[in-house]
């Protein structure tokens, strides 16, 4: 081993879902929105002055921060914007999780949590969800260095009632509690209404799912101004200019278009409810979903088998080869037409 | 103090140059390119399919990595792309600077180096440049945890001959040596030609200066495949999808347009050489610049005074209120017209 190799940070990186390059694929594997971005964002893109690309973007992301603050009726000093919610949560880990006590998160959850903890050398404990994949609030009462969980949870799609979310926050007033709400717009109730009552609460959301802009990389955190300032201080210590000019302009236009947003999420919710019925008839079981995906297991066929068979038919879903969930498929909700193609393929396979 | 405050990471963040929002400003303060992005990038932008923004970008940034690799005649596995060179260098610090020995960099240099070291808790030593602002190679022979310096240096604009750069790399084979070449395209010779001979060398460049795309946030590192793999592993542990779809597409188009790139850099170099003559006549002294800026001190007038007077006239340059350099101004090279406006203002002030 060469000397310089000894000081390389060794990590087990997160493996993202496949991004197939072949055309005519039905892509239900990374929880993207099947509908295009808001026409308001498209209009902003078409009017964008490309000459300005020679200039640095606004390091304070003022226009996008302002648009998000207006939408959620909070102060601009309560909003932090990052390069997707992964960037936001990673920055929040670095900023707030500096205790010797372990950070707590569910064992079946977004698998990036343990990866961030590893890369930043943060002690953590993965708390088992129960046999029905439910996050048990009282499991989070023990002393810890911070708490994070998604609501709805991923990949289970299970939603936790706001009173139970509040119970976890209230039992952890001495640490920061992060609620990762990437999927909240598909039927859940956001913890944002608790922000003013709990100064230790950070709510994280994203433009990648409900706002059809995964390709732009925009995520945000909302919390009390002190938390947001601490995150900005760390952000300005790493990279002052993270959000590029197009993201600021298109993102602000998108968030202002409430009507389109509500229409798209309503369509996805309707397709999801219809999909639940079809999957049941096909012999699948699943926790009830309030997200834009369903986490389903077939009564007889193996998850890995269905996954491979679907892939042969150019339909991509997500399969996790991990303990407790290795018989499950995570199926993103597409358009009605895409879901019908999926159901036809499943009938063929099963 | 509330309990959760104790675990917040406290940092002294980098303060970026002002991004004035008023129109009709002559902006010579952040070393941006005065010319617009390549027409090839503009064409790619106009043809961009906005519907695809609903999908995640390619996490491997294949097309942009490939275009950069082709341009520099290296392998795709030798190129790492990040959100501006700040993101690239920050990721390189996290990946490679994990020794107990201090990382070395010049005391008068890009001020982010100490900020990154602080935020990641990396020990470091700022090595004084000599009285002419020269980086003395033999100062970097002592045991260390890694080395980084810009070439040309910022904010001095001083270029170090490649043989001297190689001397530092050769004396530090047991650690990673990073050469930060944000300004190399304005007349210097890149260390890229040393990549195959030194497996401990990482060269970092950016689209923000010579490629007129500061607003897109694209930087890259080139090195041996093992270094690039280690950086990608860390990157995939933080955020799989950092480079958004427009950046990948516009960036690849820009790097392919060699002719426009060479025309713009030649114009900037010509304007710089002309500006040196004018500044000398106006009573300024400065280290010889091979960058797109000049680091100048007036023989009589104070830097802070000139800075404020220029600002009153809507001309922004950069002033650092720091020991050893508090009489200097860093003046970005604009168009000939912008520089003439600057010289007229300076005549008026002095």
TrEMBL record, chains A, B:
User: Under the GO molecular function aspect, what terms does this record hold?
Assistant: histidinol-phosphate transaminase activity; pyridoxal phosphate binding
Pathway this chain belongs to: Amino-acid biosynthesis; L-histidine biosynthesis; L-histidine from 5-phospho-alpha-D-ribose 1-diphosphate: step 7/9
- Quick one: a GO biological-process term for this protein? L-histidine biosynthetic process
Fetch the Gene3D superfamilies from UniProt: Aspartate Aminotransferase, domain 1, Type I PLP-dependent aspartate aminotransferase-like (Major domain)
Q: Which cofactor does it need?
A: pyridoxal 5'-phosphate
Q: Which residues form a coiled coil?
A: none
Annotated transmembrane regions: none
Q: Could you give the subunit structure recorded for this chain?
A: Homodimer.
Under which name does UniProt file this protein? Histidinol-phosphate aminotransferase
Which organism is this protein's natural source? [Bacteroides] pectinophilus ATCC 43243
- Gene symbol of the encoding locus: hisC
